[in-house]
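Hey, can you fold this one?
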Amino acid sequence: MILYLHGFDATSPGNHEKVMQLQFIDDDVRFLSYSTLHPKHDMQHLLKEVDKHIKLSDDPSPVVVGVGLGAYWAERVGFLCGIRSVLFNPNLWPEENMTGKIDRPEEYEDIASKCVSQFRQKNRGRALCILARKDEVLDTGRIAEALSPYYPVIWDEVEGHKFKSISAHLQEIKAFKSESETV
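Sure. Predicted structure:
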């Protein structure tokens, strides 16, 4: 089972395309939607949804995949729910770059301070990070610097921020997902 978390643009047709692409490596891909505007509510909602889907599945190695803001949530929710995550261009600092786009961006700082201390250290190796060198929205060099001590980082030389096509990375995702069956 793959749980897919969209980025800030929840209605982008690219979300459907990514779900379709993920179905090449797992028939069971589930799109989880959230508001994007209310961080504390989104976290509670996503924790409940991910937990529910894990309980409804017999997959021994479920994975949560997120793009942009969805990758922010995939990392945290994956850790808290005990499953691996794949992060495409994760927006690690929405409190800095979502001002004016969401109601309470400062809630991200609050969430970060209330999350398990040193959660990345405790989550080491349980996420895969795929970054676009041509991301026109985020500083992927800064993201790589923050995440590379904890997770493998793969660079994409073609895609931009929204990762229109993830197909070049499907085999890496499949191998990462399969790896969790043996851990």
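The chain has a mean pLDDT of 91. Let me know if you want another pass with a different chain boundary.
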